[in-house]
Automatic annotation (TrEMBL):
Keyword flag Cytoplasm: yes
Originating species: Austrofundulus limnaeus
Keywords assigned: Cytoplasm, Cytoskeleton, Immunity, Innate immunity, Metal-binding, Nucleus, Oxidoreductase, Selenocysteine, Zinc
Role: Methionine-sulfoxide reductase that specifically reduces methionine (R)-sulfoxide back to methionine. While in many cases, methionine oxidation is the result of random oxidation following oxidative stress, methionine oxidation is also a post-translational modification that takes place on specific residue. Acts as a regulator of actin assembly by reducing methionine (R)-sulfoxide mediated by MICALs (MICAL1, MICAL2 or MICAL3) on actin, thereby promoting filament repolymerization. Plays a role in innate immunity by reducing oxidized actin, leading to actin repolymerization in macrophages.
The protein's name in its UniProt record: Methionine-R-sulfoxide reductase B1
Residue stretches making up the MsrB domain: 1-94
Cofactor(s) in the UniProt record: Zn(2+)
Length: 94
């Protein structure tokens, strides 16, 4: 499954079936559906990756913004923004 699709709309934003999200170009495992959360952006959002090296992040010119790429092939996956997402206690289920 593709993490981010810029053409024709994102089909996995509201997709919450159990499974693994992989890179659309190389099938590298990126995210588990267990780490997915509802978000106001048009793309799916996750709290953590499958493996530490599943993705690479590169700081952008906008403060607190990072470009997220597949850790294996460099396919563009979207962006991460500092302090965006659920609070830690929400992630831990407390």
């Amino acid at each position: 499954m593709s993490f981010c699709s810029f053409f024709g709309g994102e089909v996995y934003k509201d997709h919450f079936k159990p499974g693994i999200y992989v890179c659309s170009k190389c099938d590298n495992q990126l995210f588990s559906s267990r780490s997915k959360y509802e978000h106001s952006s048009p793309w799916p959002a996750f709290t953590e990756t499958i493996h530490e090296n599943s993705v690479s992040k590169h700081k952008e010119s906008r403060p607190g913004a990072y470009k997220v790429l597949c850790g294996k092939c460099g396919n563009g996956l979207g962006h991460e923004f500092v302090n965006d997402g659920p609070a830690k206690d929400e992630v831990d289920g407390q």
